[in-house]
């Protein structure tokens, strides 16, 4: 008996592989959970007497958890001009954003958030949260004792720093003496317009907000922090830390940021 061999059976080698690659539908290879939406960019805004390097330990943790991060260099020249700077900076970031402000930086994110697109949440870290028309100076006056400030006249105004001899007590009481001394030496002065310019916007009215209250804070009294956070209807967490909480308790700071990002 003779058998007829089908024509396709005679196709071998590279020709067969090529044919299969064309005619066999691709099979799904991702058998795990479907990928979720991209994580929002975390924008970190430092406050007075510090710089963006103060976020270093938090940045390390956020990046390890897969978050894109930006840390801006706050000019510290006045609430109005610094808000304009941050607003301009935010236009360069595409997609959802989480704005995080420490101390004076909290006032900046409050004001800049309303002009930015796709701001998912606001996070206040031992921060000022001013109402419209209110100044940082008015809020700071509620904290006692007053910070030990040193004033220096500069072209176009006055800048202030914290007395280096009292910096650790006022700003970084839970950091070791060496670290606190280095921070005192490298602190960046802030123009007094930061405390005299009135706040113009209230981002927390329309954007979900979180606040980390620092119970050992001698720069912004914890009760003043609680008052501002309650007024902003922020989801609040408290931690035993000084004003330099990003350095002394970076895990707690990272946790509340990621909670807001989710």
Describe the structure concisely.
This protein is an alpha/beta fold.
What is the CATH topology classification name?
Rossmann fold
Which structural class best describes the helix and strand composition? Answer: alpha/beta
CATH secondary-structure class: Alpha Beta
What's the CATH H-level superfamily name? Alpha/Beta hydrolase fold, catalytic domain
Strand order of the largest sheet: 2-1-3-4-8-9
Count of individual helical segments: 11
Percent strand: 15-25%
| Low-confidence region ranges | 1-31
Tally of individual domains? 1
Helix content: 25-40%
Overall outline:
globular
End-to-end separation = 72 Å
| Estimated radius of gyration | 26 Å
Beta strands, count: 9
Pfam families: Abhydrolase_6
Keywords: Hydrolase, Signal
Protein name: Alpha/beta hydrolase
Signal peptide: 1-28
What do you see in this structure?
GO terms for molecular function: hydrolase activity. InterPro entries: AB_hydrolase_1, AB_hydrolase_fold, Sec-Metab_Biosynth_Hydrolase. Residues 42-254 form the AB hydrolase-1 domain. It holds the Pfam family Abhydrolase_6. Keywords: Hydrolase, Signal. It is globular, with a radius of gyration of 26 Å. α2 packs across α11 (250-261) and α3 packs across α4. It has a single domain (41-261), classed as 3-Layer(aba) Sandwich (Rossmann fold), CATH 3.40.50. It has eleven helices and nine strands. It is 34% helix and 18% strand. The protein is α/β, with parallel strands linked by helices and 262 residues long. β8 (209-214), α9 and β9 form a beta-alpha-beta unit. Strands 2-1-3-4-8-9 form a six-stranded parallel β-sheet, sandwiched between helices.
């Amino acid at each position: 008996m003779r058998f007829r061999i089908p024509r396709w059976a005679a196709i071998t080698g590279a020709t067969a592989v090529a044919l299969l690659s064309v005619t066999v539908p691709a099979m799904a290879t991702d058998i795990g959970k479907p990928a979720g939406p991209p994580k929002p960019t975390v924008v970190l805004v430092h406050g007075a007497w510090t710089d963006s390097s103060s976020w270093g330990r938090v940045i390390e943790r956020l990046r390890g958890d897969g978050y894109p991060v930006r840390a801006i260099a706050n000019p510290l020249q006045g609430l109005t001009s610094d808000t304009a700077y941050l607003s301009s900076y935010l236009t360069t970031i595409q997609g959802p954003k989480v704005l995080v402000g420490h101390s004076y930086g909290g006032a900046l994110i409050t004001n800049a958030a309303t002009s930015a697109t796709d701001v998912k949440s606001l996070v206040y870290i031992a921060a000022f949260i001013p109402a419209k028309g209110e100044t940082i100076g008015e809020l700071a006056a509620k904290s006692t004792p007053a910070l030990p400030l040193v004033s220096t006249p500069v072209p176009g105004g006055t800048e202030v720093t914290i007395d280096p001899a009292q910096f650790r007590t006022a700003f970084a009481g839970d950091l070791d003496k060496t670290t606190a001394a280095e921070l005192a030496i490298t602190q960046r002065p802030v123009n007094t317009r930061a405390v005299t310019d009135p706040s113009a916007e209230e981002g927390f009215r329309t954007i979900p907000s979180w606040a980390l209250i620092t119970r050992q804070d001698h720069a912004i009294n914890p009760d003043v922090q609680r008052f501002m956070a309650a007024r902003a209807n922020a989801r609040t967490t408290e931690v035993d830390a000084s004003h330099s909480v990003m350095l002394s308790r970076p895990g707690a700071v990272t946790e509340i940021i990621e909670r807001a990002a989710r």
